[in-house]
Design goal:
Layout lengths: L3 E8 L7 H12 L2 E8 L5 H10 L4 E4 L13 E2 L1 H6 L4 E5 L2 E5 L2 H11 L8 E5 L3 H12 L4 E6 L2 H10 L6 E5 L2 H7 L5 E4 L25 E4 L8 H8 L3 E3 L2 H16 L5 H8 L5
Parallel strand pairs: 1-2, 1-3, 4-6, 7-8, 7-10, 8-9, 10-11, 11-12
Antiparallel strand pairs: 3-5, 5-6
Length: 280
């Protein structure tokens, strides 16, 4: 009898999560049987939920907000990126031990690669300096980006990021203002929005005329997927720039987690099908 894998996503809120449907598509493509459960969990409940998952023979789980930092103290082993960033969003359970990973950065770079965009040797501008932006920055470094520029509204967060990456010379930092965007944008090959700009309920406070200053070969990638077609992506399309929507990052976070948990490679057709989940 084939093994039935059991997975979960923990966080609060998680009712909106599309991860169960995404992972069911991956499982179908790999010919395995899974259960994937949404378990609403806060920091105080996390230890108890982990014990339940161990007891019930779950193979792994995802952590979303507000648990990405809280989970660290429960891990037995961390991968290098997880340890460096002090956050975790993917946990494998093996013989009662918890192995922690972060797939945020790898999800973005894999999504770029899948869409024909290589980061090696490229100048890359990132909007935002939060936890996911840090993970993406680390992944860009590991994939040999040439220069990385971080723009963020808050100087404190920029300073925190500067401290984290103090040993990396090819990263520059400045405030996210329209003047600064126009100052730097012409030399950038890829713009990645890792900020809340464009997300439902957030006022962007920018117009996107600066996109006219970009190289015609430039690529615009967004981590925001609600809405899927953000104002940034609409403006980029109007300027005939290549765009990569935010659902690619989410899908590839799932791909990496699924492969960590199962050791199976997700077929390309299943990746395309999973991306179609949000387009329906």
């Amino acid at each position: 009898m084939n093994k039935k894998y059991k997975f979960a996503v923990l966080g609060k809120p998680v009712a909106h999560s599309l991860s169960p449907e995404i992972h069911r598509i991956f499982a179908e493509g790999c010919g395995i049987d899974i259960d994937y459960e949404k378990i609403e969990t806060n920091q105080e409940q996390l230890g108890e939920v982990i014990e339940y998952l161990k007891r019930e023979n779950y193979s792994g789980f995802n952590c979303t907000m507000p648990l990405k930092s809280e989970i660290i103290k429960y891990l037995d082993v961390q991968d290098g990126q997880c340890e460096f960033l002090d956050v975790c969003n993917t946990v494998k359970i093996d013989n009662g031990k918890l192995y922690g990973f972060t797939t945020d950065g790898g999800g973005m770079t894999a999504g770029l690669k899948y869409n024909g965009v290589q980061v090696e040797g490229k100048n890359i501008l990132i909007f935002g300096a939060g936890a996911s932006a840090r993970a993406v920055t680390l992944s860009l470094i590991k994939n040999n980006a040439r220069d990385i520029l971080i723009l963020n509204r808050s100087k404190d967060r920029l300073d925190d990021m500067r401290g984290l990456f103090k040993n990396y010379a090819d990263i520059n930092y400045d405030l996210l203002t329209l003047d600064n965007i126009k100052k730097y944008i012409a030399s950038q090959d890829i713009l990645i929005n890792m900020s809340s700009m464009g997300m439902s309920g957030f006022d962007e406070g920018l117009d996107y005329d600066f996109l006219k200053l970009m190289k015609r070969s430039a690529v615009i990638a967004d981590a925001v997927y609600s809405p899927l077609d953000t104002r940034l992506l609409k403006a980029a399309r109007e300027n005939n720039l290549k765009i990569i929507d935010g659902f690619w990052m989410l899908v590839y976070q799932g791909v990496l987690a699924f492969e960590i948990w199962t050791g199976l490679k997700v077929p390309e057709a299943s990746i395309e099908k999973a991306h179609g989940v949000i387009e329906r």
